[in-house]
Amino acid sequence: MPDLDVLVVGAGPAGAVAAWQAKQAAPELDVALLERDRAVGSPVRCAEGVGDAGLREFANPDGADWAARKITRVIFLAPDDTEVKVAERDVGWVLDRTRFDAQLAAQAAAAGAAVLVGTEATGMTHAADGRWHVRVKQRGVEDIYRARVVIAADGVEAMVGRWAGIDTRVPARDMESCAQYVLQGIDFDPDAIYLQFGDRIAPGGYAWIFPRGVASANVGLGLVALKADGRNAREYLDAWVARRYPTAARTALTVGGVIVHTTIKRTCADGVLVAGDAAHMINPLSGGGIVNAMKAGRLAGCTAAAAIREGDTSERRLSSYHQAWMDLLGDDHLKYYRIKQALENLDDAFFNGLARTVNGIPQEKRSLGRIFAHALVKHPQLIPVAARFFL
Amino acid sequence: MRRVTPAEIAVVDLAVCDRCGLCLPLCPPESIHLELNVLTVDRDSCTGCEKCVAPCPVGALAMVAYA
C-alpha cells in the first residue's frame, strides 16, 4: 500500500503541472501522477490551440518539438462564408499534444514526482486516519494508494471529485459535443486559425481549422445537441468537411466533450482539490482550456504542498485554492458565460451583417475597440450583449 | 435511486462508443461509468431521461425498452 503525500489523478496539463509544482514547492513530499491510458498525451481529444502569453508561463515554444505551428492570424468565417481577419500579431500556437503532455509529465518527473502510466483510479474512501484510500488498478492488479491530498485532474468525466462528494455534473445546454478530423492535403492559410459560426454548421458552437503544417490541420466543430437538428457532431462535421474539403484525406478522427459552463461551486473537499476540465475551468466563450488547466494545476500543486507542510489539509485550509482561482480566472468566466448566453439569441443574419460591418473597417485600423464601437452603432442587437460585460 | 420504473433506459453500443466520457457528467443520477476502457449504463438507476443520447458525438447511446 503506497503511502503518498500528493496523489494526482490524470496526467493532462492540469495534473502534470500540479505534480510538478507540488514537488517543486515542497521537495520532501512523495508525489505520484497517475495516467489511466498507456501513454501520457494519448489519445488526443483536443483542437490543440493555445494563446502565446499563457503558454509561455509554463514552457517556451520557440523551436520546441511539441509546438506544431505558430499562429499569427485569426480568420472568422460568417455563416455565409464571408471572411473577416481580425488579428495580426503573436496570436498563439497549435500544439502537438502527444509531445506537449509528455513534456509536462517529464517536468514533473524531473522534479521528483513518480509518473505511473496504465494506472487507473477506480474509487476512493476517506479513512479514519484522515487519508484518502484510493483504489488503483494497474495491469489487472488492484492496490490501495494512501494520500494526504488527492488532486482530481481527470478531465470531463470528473469522477474523482464525485467520489469526494463534489457535484461535477453539467447541464446539457453547457456541453459542447465535438468531433474533429486531421485533414491532409488541404488549401488554407497555414499561419491562421479559422473559426466559423452558423446554426446549420455548428449550432451553439463553432467549426474550426487549426493548422498542424502547411497542408494539414485539425478540422473540427463543437455544437450543443439541444440546438441541433437530430444529427450528431460527427454527422455535422462530415457535412462541413464534404462542402469545404471534399477531396482531403482524413487521417484521424477524435471526439469528445467541452464543458462551456462556469467553475464548479466547490473545487475542494477535505484532502481533495479539483483542477482543469474536471472543475469546468474552461473559457465558456472560446472553449479553450489548456492554459487554464495549467494555471489551476499550479495553484492546486502549490496549495497542496503548503497545506501538507502546515499539517492541515481540511477543506477550510484548501479553500484558499478556490478563492485564488476565482480571482485569477473564475470570475472572468462568469462574465464570459453571461456574454455567451446573450450571443445565443443572435441568428445567422446578424453574424453575416456583422462580418460586412467589420470588413468595412480598413484592416490596419481593425483594433478590437474600433470593431466593437462600429458594431454597436450598426447592430443595436449587440447592446444587450455588451451590457452583460459590465454587469 | 429512482422513484419510478422507467419505460425506457439508455444503452451504449460499445462498437460505436469512443470512450470520450462526455456523457458521464450529463447523467443526473450518475448512472454512467467508464472503467478499464468500458462504458456502462447502470440499468438499476437510469431514469430514462435521455439527456445522454443526443449529445453523444458518435451516436453510441440509444433508448431501449426496460424489461
Please render the helix and strand layout as text.
The complex is a heterodimer of chains A (391) and B (67).
Chain A: E1 3-9, H1 13-25, E2 31-35, E3 49-51, H2 52-56, E4 67-77, E5 83-95, H3 97-111, E6 114-117, E7 119-126, E8 132-138, E9 141-152, H4 159-163, E10 175-184, E11 192-196, E12 206-211, E13 216-223, H5 233-244, E14 249-259, E15 268-269, E16 272-274, H6 290-310, H7 315-343, H8 348-359, H9 368-378, H10 383-390
Chain B: E1 8-12, E2 32-35, E3 38-41, E4 61-65
Antiparallel strand pairs in B: 1-4, 2-3
How would you sum up the global shape of chain B?
globular
What percent strand of chain B? 25-35%
Give the overall average pLDDT of chain B.
95
Order of helices and strands of chain A: EHEEHEEHEEEEHEEEEHEEEHHHHH
Uncertain regions spanning at least 5 consecutive residues of chain A: none
Q: Can you tell me the CATH superfamily of the largest domain in chain A?
A: FAD/NAD(P)-binding domain
CATH topology of chain B, what is it called? Answer: Alpha-Beta Plaits
Q: How would you portray this structure in words?
A:
The complex is a heterodimer of chains A (391) and B (67). Chain A has ten helices and 16 strands. With 391 residues, chain A is α/β, with parallel strands linked by helices. Chain A has three domains: 3-45 and 98-169 and 263-332, FAD/NAD(P)-binding domain (3-Layer(bba) Sandwich); 70-93 and 172-259, D-Amino Acid Oxidase, subunit A, domain 2 (D-Amino Acid Oxidase, Chain A, domain 2, 2-Layer Sandwich); 342-390, no CATH class. In chain A, the strands form two sheets. In chain A, strands 1, 2, 6, 7, 8, 9, 15 and 16 form an eight-stranded mixed β-sheet that branches. Chain A has an eight-stranded mixed β-sheet with strand order 3-5-4-11-12-13-10-14. In chain A, helix 1 packs parallel to helix 3 (97-111) and helix 7 (315-343) packs antiparallel against helix 10 (383-390). The mean pLDDT of chain A is 94. In chain B, the strands form two sheets. Chain B has a two-stranded antiparallel ribbon with strand order 1-4. Chain B is an all-beta fold and 67 residues long. At the A-B interface, strand 10, helix 5 and strand 14 of A face strand 2 of B.
